[in-house]
Design brief:
The protein is mainly beta. It contains no helices and four strands. The chain has a domain at 20-52. Helices cover 0% and strands 31% of the residues. A hairpin with a 5-residue loop joins strand 1 (20-23) and strand 2.
Length: 64
C-alpha cells in the first residue's frame, strides 16, 4: 500500500483469525502470529512458512 492509502492488495491468503503482523526493520520480511502458529514470509507475501505451531493473540515485535 502506498503512503496515501492507494494500491492496497492482499499479499497472502491463509486462514487465521485476527493475525498480528510485525515487519523486519529492513521491511523485507514479516512475521505473523495467529492462533495456528507463528509464520514468516517475504513482505510481498511470497515464501510463507510456519515457523512455530504455538500461536496466540497479542503483540508481536521483530527483534534485531
Amino acid at each position: 500500500m502506498n503512503a496515501d492509502g492507494t494500491g492496497l492488495r492482499r499479499v497472502t491468503s491463509f486462514y487465521e483469525d485476527l493475525p498480528m503482523v510485525a515487519f523486519a526493520p529492513d521491511g523485507k520480511e514479516a512475521a505473523v502470529m495467529a492462533l495456528g502458529g507463528i509464520y514468516r514470509m517475504n513482505a510481498d507475501g511470497s515464501n510463507l512458512r510456519r515457523i512455530d505451531q504455538t500461536g496466540d493473540h497479542g503483540g508481536l515485535d521483530w527483534a534485531r
